[in-house]
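Handoff note, outgoing to incoming analyst
You'll be picking up this chain. Sequence as last confirmed:
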Amino acid sequence: MRKQWVVMLLAIACRAVLAEDGSAVEPFRVGVLYWSMSIPGQVAMRKGLEAEAERINATARERGERQVTLLPEVAGDGASGVERQIGQMLAMVTAKPDVIIVQPTDNAALAAPLKAANAAGIPVVAYDQYISGGHLAAYVTSHNRQAGYLDGEYLAAQFPGPAPLRLVLVEYPLVSSTVERVNGFLDGLRDHGKAFMILKTYQAVEPVSGHKAGLDILRDFPSRGSIDAVFTVNDGGGLAVVDLLAKAGRDEIAVANIDGDPLSIENIRAGRLTRIDSAQFCGPLGTAAMQAAYAVAQKQPVARQILIPVFPVTAETLKLYPGWQGPIPAPFKKPWVAKQPMWPGETAVILQ
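Most recent structure output, in case you need it:
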């Protein structure tokens, strides 16, 4: 069904419109390289991106302007997904679209394909993750350091006192967003005076690796009370960790997650281990990536980096959170002790 929907979108987008002088206006060809369709947040980002492409095309048809044709590819998860995306991006460069949008599977692995696009004069917009090496026309992502920081400050408020927080990290050091989340989380604890002890780290970013991490945590820390808190860098892997801990009766553990998956929000609502989930606005993120790419294709100025805010979903703030598709709420005062008492709710733009 999803394939048919994409084909319909492309068919609509491919129809040339007429300019004011009656000449045909060919659509911009936009290569889109998605990472995963098994991580729900990334699926939501894709929906936001493709809905914006439809909106752009509807407006362009009315005005006799150039539309967009999306040329989508999906890499998939794991090491094979990284290798597949390298080949996809190199093939996309050979196809010479007007602009490429990419959600990188790995920060370093796509450096060579990005440089190939630069050499071919094809602008590249990255979203969600960064690419280390080469030049990006624009980079659109959630404010990932803010996401980790909010989790850290909230746990610091939940665990007052001098005793160090006994902490387990479920991380993924291969992409920029998850590295920034871990750094922000630890900074949030430090800035709020909370000592901590990292007992062990595991790697997970999607359900299979998350399930393995959950089993490993239970194996390594079988005694109730041996862990105070678990921080997971995303719900893609983190939900599986929470599920296994909950089934094992380890409800003494406080979990801090990132992403805002609806299942994670329900865990907060039910009081099921997760205390905070710094939620992305996945739809608006995909929308912003498509807007940036369209501006680049039109040779209009665009910000070098766009940071979409994240929302701290807790039992106290549930009623304020609108979900992945937004809209982004107005600023509010956090109902816990924090050095920055107001949640700002603003998109940050870095021009140079």
